Here is the input.
Amino acid sequence: MKTTRSTKSSERVLLIGLGLKRPSRVPGYSSADSARDSLDELAELARSAGATVAGSVLQMRDAVDPATVVGYGKLDEIRAEASAYDAQLIVFDGNLTPVQQRNLERELDRRVIDRTQLILDIFARHARSREGQLQVELAQLNYLMPRLAGSAEQLSRLGGGIGTRGPGEQKLETDRRRIRERARRIAETVETLRRQRALQRRQREAVPMGAVALVGYTNAGKSTLFNRLSSAGVLVSSKMFATLDPTVRAVRLPSRRRVLFSDTVGFIRDLPKGLLAAFKATLEEAQQAALILHVTDVSNPHHAEQDEEVEKVLNDLGVKNTPRLHVFNKIDRLQANELAALAHTSGNVFVSAHTGAGLDALLARVDEMMPVDPLVRLQFSLPLADGRSLALVHGVGRVLHSEVRDSQMDIDAELPESLVRNLQLKAL
Here is the structure.
C-alpha cells in the first residue's frame, strides 16, 4: 500500500489495482511490474482529474472475480483503507461491468468508478472545441446508459465529484428514451461537424502541402515538440490528455517546402475503442497523414511497453502501412552513457523538445521522407484580382522578386512543382 498526503481541498480517492498472474511477453517485466505501472498511471490520471490520491491497494489474482473483481474477502481490506484515509471515492484500475459496479458500491458504501469513467472525466475537463465537448458527452452517455438500470440509488450518488462531470444529474435522471434521443442528436451534430472538417481538409489538400501527424503515448512531449517546430502555442501540461482538440500548423522544411504538422491526443494502455471513436477529430489527422512521427519519452524506463500500446492503437486506426519516423524525445533527461547506448539505433531521431537539441536533424529526416515535390524556379505573371493564387504563391513558395505592372504582378519565385501544375503557371 502506498500513501500520499496533500493539503489541497480536492476529492480524496483510493485506487485499486488488479494484476493477473500470467507469463509476461516482455523479458524481465513481470505481470506484477505491469500491474504496478498501470496503478501508478492511474494515480497520474486521478491527479489530472483534480483528485488527491489518499492510498492504493494492489491485488494479484489468478482470475477476475465476476461479482466484485477482487473477491468478497478483499473488500474488507478496501473498506478499512477507505475509512482510514477518509476516501469517499474508490477508483478501480480496469473496466467494471454495471453489475460489478453496483455490487462494489453496495458492499463498500462509497462511490465507485473505473478507469474509463475517470478518463472520460479528464476528457470533459480538457475538451475545448464544440465538437470535442459533444464527443465527450456522447461517450459519457453511451458509457452510463447500461449503468442506469432504473436504479434510483445509483442516480442519487451522481450529485457531483470526479467521474460525474459532463452530462450531469439533470440529464442522467431522465429515462432511457430521452437519453437515447439526446445521444442521437449529438451523433448527428458530430457527423455534421465531421463533414465540415472533411471539406476543410479537402480545401487544404488543394494546396500542395503534405501532412505530418505527431502521435505517441500521453505525456510523451508531443505538444512541446509541436510548439518548437511550429510556434503554435499549444497548451503544454504534465497532466494526462492535455491535448484533445486537433491543431494544425504549417512548418517550413530545409528544402523550403512547407508541410502541415498536426498534434494529436495522447494514447494510453487499455484505452477503450469507444474513447478512440470519441476523438475522431484528432485521430483523422493521423489517418490522413503522409508521414507519422511516433514520439517516445525515452527517459521513461518503460517506454518500450508504452510504444507497444501506441502500435496497437495505430493498427486499430488502420495506419500501420503509413511511413513512420520514430522520434525519441526528452534526451536532456538521459545520462551521457545512456544516450551513447541508444546512438547505434538506426532509422530513429533523438531530440529534446525542451532544449531544441536534434530538431534540425528531425526536420531534415522529415524532408527526406515526405513525398517528393521538388522546388522549381519560375518567372510568371498573375492578375492582381486573383487573390487566392497570389496568396498560395506567397504562402507556399518563396518569392524572390515581385513587381506590379498595370493589373498584373510579375513574380520570380521558387515554388513546389505541384503548385505550378495546380495553378497552370506559365513562364514569362
